[in-house]
Write a structure and sequence with these properties.
- The protein is 69% helix and 0% strand.
- It contains two helices and no strands.
- It is mainly α.
- Helix 1 runs antiparallel to helix 2.
- It has a domain of 46 residues.
């Protein structure tokens, strides 16, 4: 059984919040890129780059949502 102290819990919550922010930013960027591409107001060469960046943000956010901080303890000499 593992024990979680208060600082580990705060770090986990902060990590989850960063994950939510990255995921939401990536999803919003994907949506806005789709809307601008549909309106033909965006340079066509930029569309794949923006989709790639937004998908990378979403993957990083999803990984941060699944991650868990665990202190390894005292360093071994």
């Amino acid at each position: 059984m593992s024990s979680i102290n208060a600082s580990d819990s705060r770090v986990n919550v902060l990590l989850r919040l960063v994950g939510i922010m990255f995921f939401a930013l990536g999803a919003a960027m994907t949506y806005l890129t789709y809307q601008e591409a549909a309106a033909a107001a965006l340079v066509p060469a930029l569309i794949p780059v923006l989709y790639l960046l937004s998908s990378m943000l979403m993957v990083a956010g999803f990984a941060a949502l699944m991650a868990r901080y665990k202190e390894s303890g005292a360093p071994k000499a």
